[in-house]
Each structure stands twice: as structure tokens, then as C-alpha cells.
Write a structure and sequence with these properties.
heterodimer; A: mainly beta; 7-stranded mixed β-sheet; 4-stranded antiparallel β-sheet; B: mainly beta; 6-stranded mixed β-sheet; globular
């Protein structure tokens, strides 16, 4: 019973490089959320996706950040031209459908920008 | 004012104590309430999920929702050192958007 999977678990990028974070939802789940967490802070919503659709990206900066959830394969959160302020833990969560209560989280990707 | 308020702690208790963790909220449209446990450098783990008002019990954990006061609680009985973690409350209305508290750090002392 595989849970939500994320990779890589740790990612180090230099300023200006691209970061690509992957999330595979739980089996049977077709809805994916991405969150960002800074030390001592709560989870901040970034984007909500269904297969092949972005439903709500209101929490994601308009520049440099993008997300997708293709028909086949994992959901991808892409950060272009990373800056030091992008250093954080990025968590993916999945749920079986809109209106379904529970969200299950992956282990997160810790991005460090040097 | 934040939609969800949670005391950050830290909260230190002796092993075996009953722990009470709380969140208040301002949006009366919230209907679904969750508690997550997050160990250091790990992902949040869903502990309890409740709909609307009332109590729900699961082993040593009890979740309470008081919608009239806009207040939710998580009780941990017979606390163990392994319960030491950050506890996050989360809630949502009928839509898909979850709002999280900032978390309360709990330390259970052996």
C-alpha cells in the first residue's frame, strides 16, 4: 500500500538553476496539492491539480513557478532560476477527489539553494 | 487575523500526562477538521479527521469540534515520548482548499 511518493528527497541547486520536484499520488488518488513549508511556519498552499488540469494556482508565484499533472506519470513542480528564498521543504499531498476529506502527504523534498 | 490560530508552543509534559492541543478559527463555513502529526524533517501524517461538530476517538487520541465556539481540540491520553512532534490542525469548507494552523510543538519528557 504505497503512500504518496516524492523525489528527490533532497535537492541542492545553485542560484539561477532549475529545480524539478516530482510527486506520485497514492493509488486511486487523482487530486494533487503542493505546499511549501518554511522552518517554524505552517504549510502554505501553492497549487491544486487534477489529472491534466490546474484547478487553483493562486498560492504559487506567477513567475518562475509552474506545475503540471499529466495523464501519465507524476505531478511536477518546476522552479526556474531559483533564488535563495526558494529554499524550503515542498510537500505534495493527494486526495481521492474534490470534496473527499482526507489529504495524505508525501515525505517532502527539501530544496536548498546555494 | 489569520483564519486558523494555533499556539506554537513548545508544550512540555511528563510521560503519561493528558495533552490538550487546540485551534481556533474564524470562518464559520469550515466543516471538515483534521489533525496531523509531523516529526522533524518528515511529512505530516494524518491522525484524525472529523466532519462537523462532535467527538471522535481513536486509541489514545480524541478529537473534539465545537463549531459554535469555532474551536477544535486534540487530546492525547497516556502521552509517550514518541508523541513528541509538531501537531498541525487543518480545516476546510465544502471546497477543496485546506487551511493549516502553524503547528504546536509537543515534547513528552520520559
Amino acid at each position: 500500500n504505497a503512500g504518496v511518493m516524492q523525489n528527490p528527497r533532497h535537492l541542492v541547486r545553485r542560484r539561477g538553476q532549475e529545480a524539478r520536484l516530482r510527486c506520485s499520488p497514492m493509488k486511486g488518488h487523482s487530486h494533487v496539492y503542493w505546499y511549501r513549508q518554511l522552518p517554524e511556519e505552517g504549510l502554505k498552499f501553492m497549487v491544486y491539480l487534477q489529472k491534466e488540469n490546474i484547478i487553483d494556482e493562486s498560492g504559487m508565484p506567477k513567475e518562475r513557478f509552474s506545475a503540471e499533472f499529466p495523464k501519465e506519470g507524476p505531478s511536477i513542480l518546476r522552479i526556474q532560476q531559483v533564488v535563495r528564498g526558494d529554499s524550503a521543504a515542498y510537500f505534495c499531498a493527494s486526495s481521492p477527489g474534490q470534496g473527499a476529506g482526507e489529504q495524505y502527504f508525501g515525505p517532502g523534498t527539501r530544496l536548498t539553494v546555494t | 487575523q489569520k483564519e486558523v490560530e494555533q499556539d506554537p508552543g513548545p508544550l512540555s509534559v511528563p510521560e503519561g500526562a493528558i495533552v490538550s492541543l487546540n485551534c481556533t478559527y474564524s470562518n464559520s463555513a469550515f466543516q471538515y477538521f483534521m489533525w496531523y502529526r509531523q516529526y522533524s524533517r518528515k511529512g505530516p501524517e494524518l491522525l484524525m479527521y472529523t466532519y462537523s461538530s462532535g467527538n471522535k476517538e481513536d486509541g489514545r487520541f480524541t478529537a473534539q469540534v465545537d463549531k459554535s465556539s469555532k474551536y477544535i481540540s486534540l487530546f492525547i491520553r497516556d502521552s509517550q515520548p514518541s508523541d513528541s512532534a509538531t501537531y498541525l490542525c487543518a480545516m476546510r469548507s465544502g471546497t477543496y482548499k485546506y487551511i493549516f494552523g502553524t503547528g504546536t510543538r509537543l515534547k513528552v519528557l520520559a
